[in-house]
Amino acid sequence: MKQLSDSLLIQSYHKAIELNLSDEFIEQIKQEINARSIQHLLDKHISQVG
User: Fold this and answer.
1) Angle, vertex CA 17, rays to CA 39 and CA 30, nearest 5
2) Using an 8 Å Cβ cutoff, are 26 and 13 in contact?
3) Organism's domain of life (predicted)?
């Protein structure tokens, strides 16, 4: 996951939720988002999509 761009990581998070992938996998993505301190990009993506 560390090799993914921030944008691709955010997209992956949303796709994992959409595809109802395992909670553990989604949690790993969320942890990487938090580790990169890019939560604001997640919020921004939600507002653009929703």
Assistant:
1) 30
2) yes
3) Bacteria
